[in-house]
């Protein structure tokens, strides 16, 4: 047998902390984490701060516990079955497509990009699924990307660290607008002549996906997009909760 691998202590401790949070029902206090892991509170705090910066853990407003973050939950989703999520959300996508007469897209965060899992064409339009499903795109610029940058904890800061200060200022302002409104508009900025609006889909308080609809600027002027955004947010509330923990 070969020599045992040389283990890196900080990685061991980080993995242990993530397992502790998961075993405690998805949320645990600093003191609890440090005690179970057998490390000092300062060490545990420093590791948690790093994991939070990377998006693997997060703290929620009014809650002192640390929770598993969106990035690790996305890894679990990727390792699982995207078809399950697609099937769960397909009925609401169909309703939105029918009410808007526009093309509807379902996207999920995947690392520092967005991946499209499903597309429903506008009634009477060619089916774009073959060219669009599993398509990946950068987060900055599109309405879907702005949703993830605004609502997935730590993601915006991590992505924008590689951008120029001028780009940061512009996107940060747009992200703040999305947080205030609850939806993201695209008035031809991403694809000339195409307008769109995207909303978040949450489960148990965490953003799991974004639903977006697109069409020509004549078919989807700004005022109509705003009305459709509120319709979409109402429709996604009808999605039944998953029984899978």
From TrEMBL:
PANTHER family attached to this UniProt entry: HELIX-TURN-HELIX TRANSCRIPTIONAL REGULATOR, ICLR FAMILY (PTHR30136), HTH-TYPE TRANSCRIPTIONAL REPRESSOR ALLR (PTHR30136:SF24)
Family matches, as InterPro entries: GAF-like_dom_sf, HTH_MetabolicPath_Reg, Tscrpt_reg_IclR_C, Tscrpt_reg_IclR_N, WH-like_DNA-bd_sf, WH_DNA-bd_sf
Stretches assigned to the IclR-ED domain: 71-245
Gene3D superfamilies: 3.30.450.40, Winged helix-like DNA-binding domain superfamily/Winged helix DNA-binding domain (1.10.10.10)
Keyword field contains DNA-binding: yes
Name of protein: Transcriptional regulator
Record carries keyword DNA-binding: yes
Keywords: DNA-binding, Transcription, Transcription regulation
HTH iclR-type domain location: 8-70
Origin superkingdom: Bacteria
Species whose genome carries this gene: Acetobacter senegalensis
């Amino acid at each position: 047998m070969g020599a045992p691998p040389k283990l890196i202590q900080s990685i061991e401790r980080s993995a242990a902390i993530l397992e502790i949070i998961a075993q405690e029902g998805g949320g645990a206090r600093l003191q609890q984490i440090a005690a179970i892991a057998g490390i000092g509170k300062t060490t545990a705090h420093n590791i948690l701060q790093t994991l939070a910066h990377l998006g693997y853990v997060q703290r929620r407003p009014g809650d002192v516990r640390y929770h598993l973050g969106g990035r690790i939950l996305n890894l679990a989703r990727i390792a699982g079955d995207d078809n399950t999520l697609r099937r769960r959300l397909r009925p609401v996508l169909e309703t939105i497509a029918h009410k808007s007469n526009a093309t509807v897209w379902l996207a999920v965060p995947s690392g520092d990009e967005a991946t499209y899992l499903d597309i429903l064409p506008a009634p009477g339009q060619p089916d774009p699924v073959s060219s669009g499903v599993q398509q990946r795109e950068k987060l900055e610029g599109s309405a879907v990307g702005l949703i993830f940058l605004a609502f997935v904890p730590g993601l915006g800061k991590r992505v924008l660290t590689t951008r120029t200060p001028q780009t940061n200022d512009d996107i940060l302002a747009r992200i703040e607008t999305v947080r205030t409104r609850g939806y993201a508009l695209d008035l031809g900025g991403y694809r000339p002549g195409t307008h769109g609006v995207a909303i978040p889909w949450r489960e148990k308080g965490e953003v799991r996906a974004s639903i977006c609809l697109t069409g020509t600027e004549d078919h989807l002027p700004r005022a109509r997009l705003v009305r459709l955004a509120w319709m979409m947010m109402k429709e996604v509330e009808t999605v039944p909760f998953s029984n899978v923990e």
